[in-house]
Structure formats: structure tokens, C-alpha cells
Amino acid sequence: MKTLCRFAAIALTTVCSLTAGDLTLTFNTRAKVMGFSRNSVDTHYYSSRFHRTRSEDGKQDTLIDFEKGISYQIDHAKKVIQFMKIDEVLEAMSQMKAPGGPDMGAMLGGLFGNAEDIKVETQGTETVAGRSCTRHHLSAGRMVMDFSADPTLKPPIPAAAWAKSVRMKALAGSMVASPALKKLYEEMSRIQGIPLKTQMKGFMGADSISEATRVVEGPIPAATFELPAGYRMEDFGKKLKEQVARQH
User: Fold this and answer.
1) The CATH number fitting domain 2-247, selected from 2.50.20.10, 1.20.1250.20, 2.30.180.10, 1.10.10.10
2) pLDDT for residue 42
3) Burial of 40 from C-beta contacts in 10 A (0-12 / 13-18 / 19+)
4) pTM score, two decimals?
5) I want to staple 209 with a disulfide (CB 3.0 to 4.6 A). Which of 39, 113, 199, 202 is the partner?
6) Which helix (H) or strand (E) holds 87?
7) For the chain, what are the domain ranges?
8) pLDDT in tens, 152-161
């Protein structure tokens, strides 16, 4: 489930869009949740086939191959690559039960509020990384997301392929947190452009903000999207399907 959480997190920085040229985005991220905090610099690389995320600390990368429909989690410290076929994981997640029983559902509802209580507002403009962005305010229950998106900036990901990753993000959000988080992701995916600044609040003092510092449009070397040689491969999708099978 940790891998799915990371997949959902990186997906927050983009929305489904039309095809465009290669794109490189660098973000400063500050996150605080349940007494823990993390500061990081992450760079996102987009081509028509791939989306790779690299952290400045060099510990972990994420690579999505949209042509093959596979997501890879790369752990450089352990020299392990966890991979999952997106179609298989979507099927497994759609059948997976949320953690806990009715009591857990009631508790999550109390923490996150009514997911059907939704607000979507446009709140003017601001400049982020030298780009003119439209500010948006979204809320579902107690979950709140404010983000600024450049409507002219479009990732090169094919719309049909990216739609699957958006669906996975929404399912992961509902599995690891609540339907309210899922609703936020779904509403965010409908808005034009790439979010260059995103802030989320609403869970036990959680407050995370990610802001772009650099936007580069232009060709990316093919080597950027290559998997490292000599790492052990683990089929995370298979593990997830086995977990679902044990629930039935």
C-alpha cells in the first residue's frame, strides 16, 4: 500500500490533458502530518511515453511507462524495483475492501467528513515559476486543496493512458484514506492545465505544499527514462492480487 500511496502523491502534480512536447518540472515540497515533517526537491520528467520522478536525495525514483501500462518504484538503497501493471492493479483495487469494518468506516467519516459535501471555486490568478496560473479551491468534507494551474501548460501524456493513472490515484486515495480524498483527486483531474502549486490540508494537522521552481519545455534525453541495470525486480501487482484473493 505504501507504493500506491506514492503513486497517488506524484500524480497530484498533473491532470489529464492534450498531447504536447517533452516537459521538465522541478518542485520544492514541504509536508507535515501526524508530527512528522519532510522537505524535498523533486523533478518530474514527461515524454509522450514516460513520466519519471526523481528526488534530490537520490533514494527513490518512480517511473511510469504508459505504452506498456506499467508503474515502477525504484529503491536505489536496496537496489530493488517494484513494478505493477496498471490494468491489473486497477482491477485488484476495485475489488479490494477498505481497511477495517463498519467501525473503521465511521471513524474515517468522522475524521474526513462527508465526501459528498463538495466545493469547487476559481479564485483569481497568481504567478508561479514565471507562469501565469489560475487559482482553484477544492474541498470535500474536511479535506481542502488549493492549487494554481497554468492552463496553457500541457503534459505530453496521451489522454487515454493518463486517464488510467488518474483512476488509480483516486482508488488509492479512497483505500488509504477516505472517499473525501478520492473526490478531491477526481475534481482536480477535470481542471485544465498542470498544477504548479498545490497545498492540501484536513487530516490530523496535515499541511503539505508543493511549488514549482523551474519549468522547462524541450527534448529530454532517452537515458532519463531507462531503468537501472542489476536491480532485483519484484512484482507488486501480483502481491496485491494475492492480497485481494485472501479477502474473498
Assistant:
1) 2.50.20.10
2) 93
3) middle
4) 0.76
5) 199
6) helix 86-95
7) 2-247
8) 988 788 777 7
**Residue ranges in the chain modelled with pLDDT below 70:** 1-20, 33-36, 92-117, 162-182, 203-205, 244-245, 247-248
How is the beta sheet containing 36-46 ordered, strand by strand? 118-128, 131-140, 143-150, 194-201, 207-217, 23-33, 36-46, 50-55, 60-65, 70-75, 80-85, 232-235
CA separation for the pair 125, 236 (Å, rounded): 41
pLDDT tens profile 17-58: 334 589 999 999 887 766 667 788 999 999 999 999 998 888
d(CA 84, CA 63): 11
Angle among Cα 84, 155, 33 to the nearest 5 degrees reads 60
H or E element in which residue 180 lies: helix 179-189
Cα separation of 220 and 28, whole Å? Answer: 21
Cell numbers describing residue 17? 490533458
Distance CA 112, CA 98 (A): 15
